[in-house]
Amino acid sequence: MISIGLGIFFLVLTFFLTEFAAWSAHKFVMHGFMWHFHRDHHQGKSGFFERNDVFFLIFAIPSWLGIMLGLMYQYYIFVWMGFGIMAYGFTYFLIHDVFIHRRFKWIREINTPYFMAIRRAHKMHHKHVNKEDGECFGLLIVPMKYYLEARKASRQNRAV
């Protein structure tokens, strides 16, 4: 058994490390040998679901295994890590599918510089409709230039 404080530490650490794992998977897997599944996300879709949605299942497996096997074998650090991956997945869903792509109409606008920068970086990622020449593969960590642009625009909007 590990303490709650140590468990929360591993949950938060895993959450942040998952951003880098997701960046790598997006750049090298989704824009690489699994482009067949990711292509419709860049080139339009025919309905609510996309082939790209298969990645939800692929990325959920480590979370599920960490929680299940950690509980079964009483390695609770893996349970906390599994919940860290799950928390990242839920955050990804809210930001990517709800806020950016508006697949669900739950969030109208969040006009803080950070969220405006996230949206801009994602827009720059989607300007490339093929798997080559991509940019901005992350979700939560965006190039500073987009944050600075958004902060400047936010200040100008407040001044008007």
Describe the protein.
The chain has six helices and no strands. The chain has helices spanning about 5-35, 35-40, 55-75, 75-100, 115-125, 145-160. The termini are far apart.
Question: What attributes characterize this protein structure?
Answer:
160 residues, mainly alpha, globular
Radius of gyration: 18 Å
Through-space gap between termini: 56 Å
Low-confidence stretches: none
Class by SSE composition? mainly alpha
What is the β-strand count?
0
Q: Work out the count of structural domains.
A: 1
How would the blueprint of this fold be written?
Layout: H1 4-33, H2 35-42, H3 54-73, H4 76-100, H5 113-126, H6 144-159
Helix pairs in contact: 1-2, 1-4, 3-4, 5-6
In short:
By secondary structure, the chain is mainly alpha-helical. Helix content is 71%, strand content 0%.
